[in-house]
Amino acid sequence: MNDTMILSKAKNRVIAHIVFFYIFIGSVLFAIYYTLTLDFFKNSLFAYSFLGIALGDALIILLAFIALASGKKWSRWLYWLAFFATLGFFYIPIKALLDDLPNFLSYGFCLGGMFVLELILFQVGMYFYKNPYCRIYYDHILTSELEQKFMEQQQTERKLVIQQEKRVADQKEEFEEIEEEKEVPVKEEMTYPQLALRLGIGVYGELIVFPIIVQIFSNFFASYDLQQVFATREMFIFSIFTAFVWTIPVLYLYYNQPQSKKIVYGCILAEVLFLIYCFFQIKGYYDSGLYPIKAFLFFGLLDLARYAILAYFVKPILTSDYQPDKLQLP
Q1: How many CA atoms lie within 13 A of 197 on its CB side?
Q2: Membrane-spanning regions, if any (predicted)?
Q3: Residue 330 banded pLDDT, cuts 50, 70, 90
Q4: Sign of the C-alpha dihedral computed for residues 236, 233, 44 and 94 taken in this order
Q5: What is the mean pLDDT of the segment spanning 81-86?
Q6: Rounded to 10 degrees, what is the CA torsion of 13, 17, 20, 22?
């Protein structure tokens, strides 16, 4: 494979990732803004302040990504300047929090969301230095290992062409080969990026589905006088905490990091500690005598289902024998 083809392939990969990163970051900003507009926070005015922060972040990151798409070395330094510029927006919610402590939940959620966003931006920044395709696109450096990978890819493509020719020559034989080949992928271990996508679907799906379920069946969690529903607020907080905590292993898995399993165990510990804290919160509602026992039974079963689904998505990560390669080609 000649240098022009390698550079072209690297450019396409990098630009495709830049587009994906920007869409993902935009989705995170929109999710934070939308959540702040919910009646749950009782401080929807601050949501408009965050909208300004989100637009500022989106514009700064867009300019940095446009520069990165050019493939110039200095564009990576520009990205870090943009990264530090986004950190400056933390001043707005921190100042608002100090001036309005009773609305701690709104500002705390905003700060938590912004912190997660900065973690994402940091990992994205490291991608432009560590990824082999980025080293080709920005530094014009082709390692011997990467060159070997390209050669292997070429050999694989040639084998596919030969297989297609054989398929035309002898369909019966090819059908048997296909049956044998189809059995192999079933036994293969899922890669960390695949597990990250799987975990992300589960975690963020729970964040949407379970609060909606509680809202739809709010009568099951209502107080004796049917005026109060504790489950709406608590389930939303539980789901937000889970989504916030598990975002970290999703990023580690997506970037094929060897420490991913340790991060997952840390998240499990955080969930256990949070569950203990939540037990005392729910016990406070029970001791108040405002709610029937069935409300707590239904809530417990629903939260148990939430954790069962989470365990379903986490278990393959813990039992996986997959070992990420030192050379990563996402």
Answers
A1: 5
A2: 14-34, 46-70, 77-98, 104-129, 195-216, 236-255, 262-282, 294-314
A3: very low
A4: negative
A5: 93
A6: -140
d(C-alpha 119, C-alpha 15), whole Å: 21
Residue 75: count other Cβ atoms within 10 Å of its Cβ.
17
Q: In a 3-state reduction of DSSP, which class is residue 243?
A: helix
The token pair at 8 is 């072209």
Length of the chain: 330
Q: Can you tell me the distance from the alpha carbon of 91 to that of 113, in angstroms, rounded to the nearest whole number? A: 14
What is the full DSSP assignment across 27-54? HHHHHHHHHHTSGGGS-HHHHHHHHHHH
CA pair distance 147, 11, nearest whole angstrom? 16
Q: How far is residue 50's CA from residue 41's CA, in Å, rounded to a whole number? A: 14
Would you call 222 helix, strand, or coil by DSSP? strand
Apex 307 CA angle, 293 and 253, nearest 5: 160
| pTM of the entire predicted model | 0.54
Task: State both tokens at 22.
Answer: 């920007």
**What pLDDT, on the 0 to 100 scale, is given for residue 269?**
93
Please report the beta strands in the chain, taking only residues with DSSP state E, as ranges in sequence order.
none
241, two tokens: 């905490």
Amino acid at 161: V
- With contact defined as beta carbons under 8 Å apart, do 33 and 54 qualify? yes
Tokens of 39: 């009646």
Comparing 47-61, 161-175, 176-190, 257-271, the range with the smallest average pLDDT is 176-190
Using alpha carbons, list the distances in angstroms from residue 263 to 120, 246, 250, 257, 317.
15, 9, 10, 10, 11
Q: 222 - beta bridge partners? A: 229
One-letter amino acid for residue 282 of the chain? I
The lowest-confidence range among 108-117, 158-167, 189-198, 226-235 is: 158-167
